[in-house]
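>> received
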Amino acid sequence: MKADPFVQLRLLDLQALDSALDRMAHRRRTLPELAEIARLDGLLEGLAGDIALAEAGVADLQRDLDKAEADIEQVRVRKARDEERLNSGAITQAKQLEELQHEVATLTKRQGDLEDAELEVMERMEEAQASLDALVAQRTEHQQARGRAVDAREAAWLEIDAEAEAKRKERGEVAVEIPADLLALYEKVRAAEGGIGAGPIERGRCGGCHVDLLNNEKAEFRNAPTDEVLRHESCSRILVRTAESGL
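>> returned
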């Protein structure tokens, strides 16, 4: 394949632009903010389960507390009714009076027992609510951190995308200067060789694979016509002669 030496040099410019675009794409995929967002998503997912369990525990305790309060109120009402009967003087028979006094005493003890149980539930409720509040606060902290990471990611993406767009525009301007057959060869090699389709010969070394050229290769490239498109047999990449080739 033949190509004007100037066009071959422009192929190096095209490679430089493609390499820059590859670096931008890699940077876009590997922003530290992406890892931070993924980390926070994992923490938030774990917290979601913990919060659900904590909320269920608080709800269970609230039901226990509501039941305890209802039981206490029921005993309190019954006790108040019995005390009113005692104080009214309507009961004159000793046996009935004794039975009513016994019932009031029993209800008083029952109320005390229920209030003690209620206090225990309230203490457990306070501990459970405190644990839930701590988990919710932690979730809020992670959500805020995630929001900041998302904002940073979006800002970085905007910057990268703007720079990449400028590079793609410049690449288009360079690509039209390169003959179709040479451009097709370059694209084919670049796709097969990790994004590097062409490189300069630099001080007797392949600029694509960075392997020193053999003496017979140097002689072959040195004696080749200036418009001949060179290929490095070891890595298949297009080689371009420059003032620093050292041939």
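>> The helical segments are 5-29, 32-88, 94-175, 180-192, 215-223.
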